[in-house]
Predict the 3D structure of the following.
Amino acid sequence: MCSVKALTKGNPTTVGLPRGTLLAWGNQTPWWLRSDVARLESFVLSKMSSTRIPGLSIAIVKDCRVVYSRGLGFRDVERGLAATPRTVYGIGSVTKSFTAIAVLKLVEEGRISLDDEVSKYVPLKLEAKGKPIRVHHLLTHSSGIPALAYAEAFIRGQLGLDGPWLPVATAEDVISFMSDYADWVHAEPGTRFFYLNEGYVLLGYIVSKVSGVRYEDFVRKHVLKPLGMSRTYFEESELSVDPDVATPYVVDREGRYIRSRFPYGITADGGLLSNCEDMARYVSMLIGRGELDGVRVLGRGYVEMMERKYVSVPSGMFGDEGYGYGLRVTERFLGRKLVRHSGSVLVYTAFMGYLPEDRV
């Protein structure tokens, strides 16, 4: 069980960088963490400078308490507005863990089974090497179907970048796009890891069909609202009235920031936008085994299922890596279990990671 407590916010400070001045805004840091934070901030600011990242936000949670949060750089370069711990960014594929929770909620309620064939819910006969693809296989990226690159083509087209554009606006469009998937099958279900964005679109479709409400509304009702994540959004109409949103940029060949836009239309595989304060509540719920502030979002056993390694991920970032349900799992990260996911929609990137045994 967890309850979230935040430290008192401080005042903006200015930090010098070789390429100009970046603003840093955050909270007061406990004394026992200050030396580590100083090294962290030095490293992050150096990388921001060398890679031309205009702004980012960070939060650290220990025992469901926010012990550090900071905004670095700018959320809007042209207007000189600083990033804060409350600045909203697209979180990309970190959304997949929310989708996994939505599916597991339906499993918990007895409305679907992880062993159900996907074709029971989706108007597409999904098989690999003659064997049915099941809900479990989509959750773990072990369907046997390699990446079909719908998301990459969709995002580049939405942002007006060079390359092919795939005008998919709904999950039904993605299902149509997948009609010739059999030509690309590489393995039997459950035997190999192939990261498949399309699989999570199908999971969102299943959530909608089984629950009778839109996927986005199901996640709002069962995850966002219970956790008090009031500034986590799917819709452009929600974001447009928020005063603290990071301006999305691309960098041209001359190194200039070009204002861009968020590629709305992606949902269950990567469409959420959030901020560090809301995500601190979300990760605290996971650390708390599905419960936060006395509100249970998901059963303890189902959270532990999310963190279990079902399939090995080759060439993992942190060595021996596997995939659970919407989460990557490293069993031996500096002697500890690391659970994480990253996300990118080109103009925004995100990372969420925690050590469940250390509650960090």
Q: What stands out?
A: The chain has two domains: 1-86, 88-360. Residues 5-24 have pLDDT under 50 and may be disordered.
